[in-house]
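Notebook entry, structure prediction.
Reason for the run: the old model in the group folder had no record of what sequence produced it. Starting over properly, with the input documented here first.
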Amino acid sequence: MTKNDSIEAAPGKSERLRGLIRRLPPVLIVLGSLLTAFAWIVSSPVGGGPDEQVHIASIMCPTPIGKHCTIVGYSDADPLQPHKPVVELPARLLRAYCFAFSPNKSAACIDLVPADTMARTAAADNGRYPGIYYRIMHVFADPSPAAGERTALLVRSANALIAAIVFVGLALLLPWSMRRQLVYVLVGMSVPMLVYFLTSINPSAWGFIGVVTTWFALTGLFATAGDTETPPWRRRALAGVAVFATILSASARTDCAAFCFVVVLAVGAFHLPQLHPKRWRRLRLVWAAMIAVAIIGVVGTFSGTQTTGLMGLSGGTHVNVINRMLLIFNAQHISDLFQGYWAGALGWFDVPMKPITASTVTAIGFGLIFLGLRRMSWTKSIAAGGVMLVMLTLSLFTLQMGGDKVGSNMQTRYIAPLLLVFVAILLSGRYRAGTRPLSLAQTWTMFLLLVMAHAFALHSFIQRYTMGVDEMTQNLNRVVEWWRPWLPSPMAVWVLGSFGFAGLALLLFVVHKPEPAMVTNGFRREFHQAHHESDQLVESVEEG
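New structure, fully documented this time:
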């Protein structure tokens, strides 16, 4: 090869290298997402999650129970669901909570239950939950005694896959600055509660997905209203995603269906200057989506008896409503309920998070909140304040009616979807501008802290079930009392999951990049137009 040939070949090699580098982050993000989900799905036994024996029984025998399982009797033990059918299910599924509430006890006791035996139970839901979630997940059910574990792992995997599909599809439809906002909320607020529930059997997984997606989809509709560079099919798709997300929430939990109605009110308050009667034609798709979401939310709220929990989750009497001292106590300690999102124990409240995890993710969460407080408007204040008021009122009312103190029965996960919406509202720009990027130093700090916090959270999670939290060791392979035999070692799964989350968190650097030129120019025009129109509306209101 001559000197000239080598000079001509050099640019080609350089281009191939740059192309490889450009393709590397998406590959690492996808691979990291898979490894993260895999690690959380397989690292806990069946029955490790809150009320998991109820949810797995309801998946095996959804309503109408007699159509899917043989009823062998009835039970009146549950006052909220009298005359519940009794069915036979794999004994290992029903007795998997033998380790619950005992953090120093590994999950080895589950292996003492014969895998080929059946047991009777009245745990299957009979109308308290909407039921659609259980009927859909029933496709993964296998009635054979030895197949219960496979059913549980398939349902966990399905929930993780649904979350990935919905969030990726939503991101592709949103404007660039709102994609950044979506990443800051989902990644920045993921450890430990969000990643735990999105890879669980619990119907709360659909609640988290649906409520958050509804907010972003409806807000994306407002953000793209009047933008000629946004194709009509994309706006119609956003409207469809909002409706689908609400259906998803309403299919799983009645409280999350109600939260979708709250989201509609919050979106309307946030975009109040745009909701002028003279502009209804331009916003008719937005109006249609909001009305549809509101109707589905209201219908879903009353689709099960779960809403009776408002009258007290511990079966308290209504005389508690006049217990002033209880109300004062709960008001003074209500911050513990919100703090539980970052510092609360997982599982049956028996998987405590290490202080290094709790303090780190709390700092990140409040950092995002204070980042949003830098740019406030009266509409943002109404929307965010309204959501916070709902969370506070709902929590205090439920505790009061049940005669409970903070820390009993009313759990953080019940209001967690609205907490994510609250953070998303604060991170929103004043006029449909999404979220400004963090500085490079802030991005690196957030990335490193999240990766570290997740690694310790996953380590605590695996350790609790393999050996119990009383073992003072960092080597997860040292004492393995419970583990699935077909898996790599506990330490290997922890390493894979930790590095996997680091790959997933690279999304923080992807959204740190400036917006593409075409999108930036189009939304800059829309930004100025919205700014001008809103100012005109404010002036007209003041004059009137």
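Summary: The CA atoms of residues 39 and 277 lie 51 Å apart.
The old model has been moved to the deprecated folder.
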